[in-house]
Amino acid sequence: MLRTDVADDLRRAFEADGYLFPDYEGYCFANVPHTVAAALGVETGRTLPDDALAGVSDEFERVLVVLVDGLGFRQWRRERDRHPLLDRLSTVGRVTPLTSVYPSETAAAMTTFHTGALPVEHGVVGWNVYEPTTDEAFEALPFQTKDGDEPAVSRSEVADADPLYPELADAGVSSHHVVPFDETTAGATTRVYESLDEFPVTVAETVADAADPAYCFAYLDHVDAAAHESGTESADYRETVGEVFDALDAVVSKLDAEGTADETLLVVTADHGHVNTDPERNVNLDRREDLLAALRRRDDGTPVKFAGSMRNGHLHLRDDSPENAAEVAADLRADLDARVFERAEILDGDASGGDRFDGHLFGDAPASETFRRRLGDAVVSHRDLGVWWGNEEPGELAYVGMHGGLHPDEMLVPFAAVRADELVE
User: Fold this and answer.
1) Signal peptide location in the record (predicted)?
2) DSSP state of 21
């Protein structure tokens, strides 16, 4: 069942002037890890509403979560008729739309996925993080500075939160990751696949070898990369979606061949979708001399630029004028079709949104000290364009598909659940 009614309700309740805000208390990606843990008998935090799994078989020993980075709910609906597995998932399974977290980008959302903590708690405010204690900007997921060096902070200090997997292990649940990069996550074993051709075998073997009860996680980044390069309307994007779901279809077949399909709950979800921007109109902040003059300076005198992302820009401003943030925010609102949130309203939970949005943009929990020091004095989220420092990183503004902001196309993601044997033809 493809639950388009839930998508409609989320938009009615949490959308304001074309910006869709997170439903942290209910249908939110942040609640997926706790829902998976609860399905395996471990209570770790707030779960999705019960109807997300209503009618889904509860007779399984393993949960396999396949996360298709960048696949929004809108694209799921559009591509359904083009791929048999997508159609079967939408017919036999239960597909519930969720809002992403804010920011709707991989570094923040995947930190939430692996820790169960909200961005306001773990402090990963975007792909780029400015850490005042070390006076350094670094990219959170590649864990490198803008120069490609190792940051002064340790890996354990990137996020102010611990992985959920040791807690699951203490409760007797084994955790296993299948990813296309070297990764070490406390409490989980890791298997690396080198290509999409290897993906089905690696996933099926991981599920078969796992000690019950087991939580298996598999990550696919191909759709996200295609959307960045050419947008979600391109032939390359649609071909990539097809290739990814061909691989996932092969996973289902191999689970069936190995006799584990009827013991496996399959969940297919995404961390965010994409909004198609216009590279010719994406906004180069380096052209705004007034803004450059207002930025905080690092110890070497250079301005603090790189914080957040093109759809979630954090501006760290000089503190020698109490009016600085308000003036900068007002100027940007006047010139750009964008929401500009000031630090005070974010910390006070006063960010305006839809009828049921409670104002807590980065999460409805107390702000950690890590989050407080990394949060910009103003946060810019354009309606449908990228906003970034184009002189130094021109490639970022050349992307077509982007995410991180509050456009419905990037904020709504699928949560599909079905026991794997029900997908076998």
Assistant:
1) none
2) P
Amino acid identity of 307? A
Q: 234: which 2 tokens? A: 């391109």
CA distances from 4 to 76, 100, 196, 237, 244 (A): 11, 16, 30, 23, 23
pLDDT in tens, 249-286: 999 999 999 999 999 999 999 999 999 999 999 999 99
Nearby residues of 330 by Cβ (< 8 Å), 6 or more positions away: none
Number of residues written out for the chain:
425
Tell me the C-alpha distance between 345 and 145, whole Å. Answer: 30
Q: DSSP characters for 107-130?
A: HHHHHHHHH---HHHH---SSEEE
* Residue 336 burial class via C-beta count within 10 angstroms: exposed 0-12, middle 13-18, buried 19 and up: middle
Q: What is the pTM of this model?
A: 0.98
Per-residue model confidence as pLDDT tens digits over 314-361: 999 998 766 788 999 999 999 999 999 999 999 999 999 999 999 999
Q: Which of 200, 315, 312 is nearest to 255 (CA)?
A: 200
- Residue 216 has which token pair? 């298996």
DSSP label of 202: H
Q: Which of 22, 1, 3, 16 is nearest to 412 (CA)?
A: 22
Residues forming beta bridges with residue 276, ordered by sequence position: 401
Q: Which DSSP helix (H) or strand (E) runs through 298?
A: none
**Which candidate, 123, 113, 154, places its Cα nearest to that of 314?**
123
